[in-house]
Amino acid sequence: MTELTHTITHAELQCLEHVRNVGHFVGEMLLLQDTAAAGHEPEQQLHLASIIHLMTARLDDVIERCNQRWLNEEVRA
């Protein structure tokens, strides 16, 4: 069986870096929420949920593109 070469594009790397940065931001927000007084504002909770959704969607896109590329390489091998 031929060994597959798995590569990632520059755009995908930028996306992963974006996801990493969002993850750091979400972690900092969670720490702030843990140390804040009781009664979180609903707007802040919605903002956090939106960020988590964005991060997950971006990561899903990168994973799907990589999987498609790898499957196409397997078919050609």
Taking the sheet with the most strands, its summary is:
none
N-to-C SSE string, H for helix and E for strand: HH
| Distance separating the two termini | 8 Å
Coarse shape = elongated
Question: Roughly what fraction of the amino acids lie in strands?
Answer: under 5%
Parts with pLDDT < 50 across at least 5 consecutive residues: none
Alpha-beta content class: mainly alpha
Q: What's the total number of strands?
A: 0
The oligomeric status of these chains comes to single chain
pLDDT averaged residue by residue:
76
Percent of residues in helices? over 70%
| Tally of DSSP helical segments | 2
Rg of Cα set: 18 Å
Describe this structure in words.
There is one protein chain. It contains two helices and no strands. With 77 residues, the protein is mainly alpha-helical. Helix 1 packs antiparallel against helix 2 (42-76). The termini are close together.
Give the SSE map.
Layout: H1 10-35, H2 42-76
Helix pairs in contact: 1-2
Entry summary:
The protein is mainly α and 77 residues long. It is 79% helix and 0% strand. The protein is built from two helices and no strands.
Defining key terms:
77 residues; mainly alpha; 0% strand
